[in-house]
Automatic annotation (TrEMBL):
Domain Class II aldolase/adducin N-terminal span(s) in chain numbering: 39-219
Species this protein is from: Gluconobacter kanchanaburiensis NBRC 103587
Region described as Disordered: 1-31
Start-end of Polar residues biased regions: 1-12
NCBIfam families referenced in this protein's UniProt entry, alphabetically: PRK06208.1 (NF004855)
Transmembrane segments: none
Residue ranges the record marks as coiled coil: none
One annotated Gene Ontology cellular component of this protein: cytoskeleton
Record's protein name: Class II aldolase/adducin family protein
A single MF term (Gene Ontology): actin filament binding
SMART domains: Aldolase_II
SUPFAM superfamilies tied to this protein: AraD/HMP-PK domain-like
Length: 268
């Protein structure tokens, strides 16, 4: 085959990793979609473990079940993020009943995620951990400033949930949290940490990583001297360019390839 024909062939059949940066085709069955979400959910825990987001019994990420929208998959209590596999994930309904799984779950996680999934039918996944930079930034009680291209992803698309009133165990507190989130992608839980929510597990995982990075960046910049935020009109434009769910989905793909190569056992 000539070099020209080889080039044409490569254009017609791009490598698998190139195809990953194209819109995902809808799953053919509930079972296929369920497996996809659970695999990305388990991958998220492994990635969060590598980023140091595990904090004792705290932290939870959920994915709505595609067949039963009033149920979602969540991590079991007291299993380190770095050890979670697909088979460890537990199915819970909005009343807190564990339908699949034999371990307890984080009560605050149930309260938060049940309220979010009830209030936002468009939310497929939600993530909350006690990451160090997220906690540090949350103590400021302010929103992230648009001081970089990356932080613009959250411009006018997150809010501060305050005041801190202890561990979120009351249904009313969960409802207040969901109301504060509104139709946004993220919250800063004052004196607590960060939370992201969205239409895919991939987007939610990427947004959490990006938000923690943005918090870290602003803390460093504030410590160095006065800040010079991006002008509102440019920040708004940049947000439309880098803050989409589709962009977050694509940004997750290299992380997926990385964690699959390093820790394929999470797929069990």
């Amino acid at each position: 085959m000539s070099a020209t024909l080889q080039n044409i062939s490569s254009l017609q059949a791009p490598p698998a990793r190139t195809r990953r940066l194209q819109p995902r085709k809808p799953a053919a069955t509930f079972e296929e979609e369920r497996l996809h979400r659970k695999q990305r959910l388990a991958a998220t825990f492994r990635l969060f473990g590598r980023y140091g987001f595990d904090q004792g019994l705290a932290g939870h990420v959920t994915a709505r079940d595609p067949e039963f929208p009033d149920r979602y998959w969540i991590n079991p209590l007291a299993v380190h993020f770095s050890q979670i596999r697909v088979s460890d994930l537990q199915l819970v309904d909005h009343e807190g009943n564990i339908l699949i799984g034999e371990r307890p779950i984080n009560t605050a996680g149930f309260t938060i995620h049940s309220a979010l999934h009830r209030a936002r039918p468009d939310v497929i996944a939600a993530a909350h951990t006690h990451s160090t930079y997220g906690k540090a930034f949350s103590a400021l009680g302010t929103e992230l400033l648009p001081i970089s291209q990356d932080s613009c992803s959250f411009y006018e698309d997150h809010a501060v949930f305050d005041p801190f009133s202890g561990v979120v165990l009351d249904d009313g507190e969960g409802d207040r949290l969901a109301k504060t989130l509104g139709n946004r992608k993220a919250l800063i839980l004052q004196n607590h940490g960060l939370l992201t929510a969205g239409p895919t597990v991939e987007a939610v995982a990427w947004w959490f990583l990006a938000m923690d990075n943005a918090a870290h960046t602003q803390l460093l910049a504030q410590a160095a001297g006065p800040l010079k935020p991006i002008a509102p009109d440019i920040a708004r434009l940049t947000a439309s360019q880098v803050g989409t769910a589709q962009g977050a989905y694509y940004s997750f793909q290299p992380l997926w390839d990385w964690i699959v190569a390093l820790e394929p056992d999470f797929l069990d």
